[in-house]
Amino acid sequence: MSVRPMVRKWRVLQRKGIRGWAAARGAAAARLWRPLRGSAAARWAGRVRRSSVVRRITPRYPRPGRTGVRRWLPSPRQWLLACVWGLLALTALVAVGYERTKIPADLNAFATQQDNVYYWADGTEMARVGPVDRQAMPLDRIPQGVQWAVLAAENASFYSDHGVSPKGIARAVTTMAFGGSVQGGSTITQQYVKNVYLDQDQTISRKISEIFISVKLDRRTSKQQILDGYLNTSWFGRGAYGVQRAAKAYYGEDVSQLNPSQGAFLASLLKGAGLYDPSVSPANHARAVQRWTWVLDRMVKTGHLSAAQRATYTTFPEPIPPPRPAGLGGQTGYLVDTARAYVTAHSGISAARLDLGGFQIYTTFEKPKVDALADAVSGKLATLDPAGRAADRNVRVGAASVATDGRILALYGGPDYIKQGFDDADIAIVPAGTTYGPFVYAAGLRDGVVRSRDAPRARVTPESPYNGDDKVPIQTPEGPYWNRDGRIVTTANAGHRSYGTITLRQAVAEQVNGPIMQLGMDVGLNQVRQASVDAGLLPDSGFGEQVPQFSLGTATPSPIRMAGAYATFAAAGTHTEPYSVRRVTLDGADVPVRHGTVTHPFTPKVAGEVDQALHDAVRSGAATAAAKAGPDLAGLPGTAPDNTSASFVGYDRTMATSVELFRIDPKSQQLMPLDGIGGRSPKQPGSDLPTSIWTQYMGSAPVSQAPSGRAAAPTAKDDAKDGKDGKDANSEKYAGGSPAR
Questions:
Q1: DSSP letter at 431?
Q2: Among 10, 133, 420, 658, which residue's Cβ finds the most Cβ atoms within 10 Å?
Q3: Within this chain, do residues 600 and 683 fall inside the same structural domain, yes or no?
Q4: Residues near 642 by Cβ (< 8 Å), separated by ≥ 6?
Q5: Strand 475-476 to strand 479-480: parallel, antiparallel, or no bridges (unpaired)?
Q6: How many domains does the chain have?
């Protein structure tokens, strides 16, 4: 090997100012220069090695001239060099990743749609829902006001950015670095890429692919094409993909007919249709109005809506009610809605992904029971005369059956899902009334009572005596209870009947209000409230002011929740959160679905004593009218203190059923009293109607089916694996309906 060419090469490098090559260490460098020892090239390399530049950029460890720990601590210059090299490595990594990332060839692969199929508990098909509602609309037919509303809401710099937002990326990286969830795409280009090229998994690798594809797509595709694709593929809720179908779903019009105000509302839905569809709940409506206002103001700020135009849009453009899909008539639609809400709240399947279809959803609903419950309700309502009697108008019934293992077996949500979309089995504005008494009794037996200041809690038993007379002053540890009007509060028995001294078990069985009110004060209304939550009511079940009347059922749990709570007593004190879906599959593979927790809020002894009182109520107490439904039944009728509801809640050894009857003013959506319903005396309670419905249903409903081995009820092992669900955010139904079905 000739030395002369190598010397010439090093001299060229030296003239260009590139130094340090000869400073390379290691076996390879040694082998290279060994044959050149003593040559001119070797002498030149030695000079390079001794140069000041090389010495500056070459780290020396341990650091000479230092002692102790300082020998091993990098100097500021070394830290700077490390950062420079790290930045260079990161730049190289990004360049390689960008070069290797390809834009997928099939833009529409995600759009292959199927129905979602719902099955009864016995495995037979219940309903098919789908396919996805989609219709493309050219960008030139989408009004500019709608386009700019979307841009103002989602990505005001769309026409000037390069497909990604450095600020958004930095925010996402920061969130991930501190343990937060992976953030979604900030720009419209990123969201479009996620919609049509990638899946919805919240992973770092998916986020990196999204960024690279977005940059490449922005370089190769016009902004108009990207915006066109985004507006035609985004999910707007109500099963609608694309702005054209969204316009039909929310306003019943072609998108070309929408004004900027309506466009601002549709743009609001892109932030999360489940949170901003006003038809879902009053909370959703408030959020939608706030977001709509912000979008319009933002359009003014970005210069795409004049202040004069903005001043004309002061009234929120209320969308039309959601359309009801065909094939969901009768009770089926309520069942599908309940199962759908459960799936989105208890699995990794989002509402948008569920709308894409392809899932098989196996529910807990038993068709014979659903049919029997619907027949019992419709048969009793048929005896009313709304045409000839004003008190019989606007009468509604909600009912639910929940097994002792948590399966929701049957629902009655209304006369027909197509005619009335609000699910009355899940409504949470109707007072529980005196069916709340067993929770007060259970709290007393479990927690004891305090009757004097600073005294320890004392135990009560089913045989503890209480004053059952009417108009007895309510007592507290400090003395009589005074209301805000300066009057002593007294007990109020039904019909103002007095019973003398009776035991607590008798008070529950015969539904004597006075002892229940006093027991609630003795136990403490906080403890009473907690006992009912432990039994199965939701913490936000409309619990009213904690005054003596609280124990008479001012709380407003749904029929589903009341049935689930009574099932706790039937199950010897074990509570299983109600659930409506046993299993979900996609392409034959199981999709994990979490079930509610199993808890033991009451000992078998306490639950057994409550159970005994409820059995006494059917045998010889306030619920004897229900005895003809069969043997071994337990339950209580109930009326609200203001007579705005009537109910019956009871159970056999396999399931509990709650029936609630009420009236709602169609204009104000407020509860109306049941005075005179069915032609009875205004002073007569209406609880005989739900009692009759419950009795007929329990007498005709077939025996409950045991869950199959592949979809059994959740066990303690399942609970440990799945964890606690807490309050589910999946169903803010009409008037604040109960989540977690």
A1: -
A2: 658
A3: yes
A4: 431, 673
A5: antiparallel
A6: 3
Kindly report the number of other CB atoms within 10 A of residue 447's CB atom: 19
Residue 562: give its domain's CATH number. Answer: 3.40.710.10
Helix/strand/coil for 533: helix
Nearest to 297 by CA among 277, 283, 286, 313: 313
Domain annotation covers residue 41 = no
The CB density around residue 143, as the number of other CB atoms within 10 Å, is 16
Q: How many CB atoms lie within 10 A of CB 375?
A: 16
For the chain, the average pLDDT equals 82
CA dihedral 153, 156, 162, 167 (to 10 degrees): -80
- Answer whether residue 732 is part of any domain: no
Residue position matching structure tokens 């989609």: 134
Asked whether residue 160 falls in the same domain as residue 235, the answer is yes
Residues 51/56/60/65 CA torsion (nearest 10 deg): 100
Tell me what the mean pLDDT of segment 571-589 comes to: 93
Question: What pairing do the DSSP bridges indicate for beta strands 475-476 and 581-586?
Answer: unpaired
Residues 217 and 263 in one domain: yes
| Phi, then psi, of 672 in degrees rounded to 5 | -115, 150
> How does pLDDT run across 503-541, given as a tens digit for each residue?
999 999 999 999 999 999 999 999 999 999 999 999 988
| pLDDT of residue 699 exceeding 60 | yes
Q: Number of helices (H) and strands (E), helices first, in the chain?
A: 26, 19
In terms of domains, do 397 and 503 share one?
no
Could you tell me the pLDDT band of residue 76, with boundaries at 50, 70 and 90? confident
Residue 384, classed as helix, strand or coil, is coil
Establish how many alpha carbons lie within 13 A of residue 730's alpha carbon, considering only the half-sphere containing its beta carbon. 23
**Number of residues in the chain:** 741
Could you give the angle at the alpha carbon of 114 between the alpha carbons of 229 and 363, nearest 5°?
A: 130
Task: Tell me which residue range forms the domain holding 643.
Answer: 365-432+556-706
- The secondary structure of the chain in percent helix, strand, coil, rounded to multiples of 5, reads 45, 10, 40
Kindly state the average pLDDT of the residues 658-666.
95
462: phi then psi, degrees, rounded to nearest 5: -60, -25
**pTM score of the predicted model:** 0.70
Statement to judge: residues 188 and 294 lie in one domain: yes
- C-alpha to C-alpha distance for 356 and 133, rounded to whole angstroms: 9
Q: Could you give the count of Cα atoms lying within 13 Å of 354 in the half-sphere of its Cβ?
A: 26
The predicted-structure confidence for 330-344, as pLDDT tens digits, reads as follows: 999 999 999 999 999
Tokens of 380: 């009793």
CB 277 within 8 Å of CB 284: yes
Residue 70 is given by DSSP the state: G
CA 132 to chain centre: 22
Of 312, 341, 373, which residue is a domain's last? 312
Position 205 in a domain: yes
Q: Do 456 and 519 fall into the same domain?
A: yes
Contact between 132 and 357 (Cβ < 8 Å): yes
Whether the pLDDT of residue 732 is over 60: the answer is: no
